Amino acid sequence: NGQLYIVATPIGNLDDISQRAIQTLGKVAWVAAEDTRHSGKLLSHLGLSARMLALHDHNEKQRASALLQKLQAGEDVALISDAGTPLISDPGYSLVRLCRDAGIKIVPIPGPCALIAALCCSGLPTDKFHFIGFLPAKSGQRQQVLQAIPAGVGTLICYETARRILDTLDDLVAVYGPERELALAKELTKTFEHFAFGTAADIKAWLTEDPARCQGEMVLMIAPSQPVDDEIPAEVQRTLKLLMAELP
Ligand code: SAM
């Protein structure tokens, strides 16, 4: 059998491609890509020419079986998406599941992922986080999704579009109140990379100050409601309890 490589590609800055990614894309028999034209540009930038096959949300199931046949015939396949890590709000799940069930070896070639890059520079807690992908397009559904997320899951992370960000900020206020600390990561690794921090009102003010700021790619992060108890060491918690008991 061939091997299936899950290859991360840049989320903006083309230098963010790993040596292993270049080697892998250069040696596989097939590169399965979300958009072959878009990924063709990356490959030619890397000086590579590969046989490509389109694998997107609408044809994934059917393409996955075609790719499985190639893998079973001994050909190696690399899966890439338009940007970042495949399967993270991107196609690939059906293919990986099918290949796993068929006993194909699946090899990760890790690299850029917008949610991780955003979280690590946000200054919000990183010990626990919950990724929600894209929120629904309609405000009512967005609020429902947000309301259904249980407390204690840590920092919330979602992918957001420039078109919806202002409405989503309003929904966050409706669900979590106006005080909740947020962080917005924009255009990561690109020329206009920017982090905005503060309440929904602060971020809205920054975004609307200049129309150009309401464009581009963004990751929205929501701080946990308050420091959870277990962030305070057990011994300190015990002492606090004793002291509290002595208070009038
Ligand atoms: N697979 C990708 C990854 O690993 O991050 C995500 C693909 S998803 C279809 C695209 C969304 O990811 C964008 O709408 C945006 O929310 C986020 N994103 C991708 N690149 C980004 C960047 N350079 N800066 C900020 N957000 C980015």
From TrEMBL:
Domain Tetrapyrrole methylase: 4-203
Keywords: Cytoplasm, Methyltransferase, rRNA processing, S-adenosyl-L-methionine, Transferase
Listed GO biological process terms: methylation
GO function term, MF aspect, one: methyltransferase activity
InterPro entries: 4pyrrol_Mease, 4pyrrol_Methylase_sf, 4pyrrole_Mease_sub1, 4pyrrole_Mease_sub2, rRNA_ssu_MeTfrase_I, RsmI_HTH, SAM_MeTrfase_RsmI_CS
Cross-referenced Pfam families: RsmI_C, TP_methylase
Main EC class the enzyme belongs to: transferase
NCBIfam families membership: 16S rRNA (cytidine(1402)-2'-O)-methyltransferase (TIGR00096)
Protein name stated in the entry: Ribosomal RNA small subunit methyltransferase I
Organism name: Rheinheimera marina
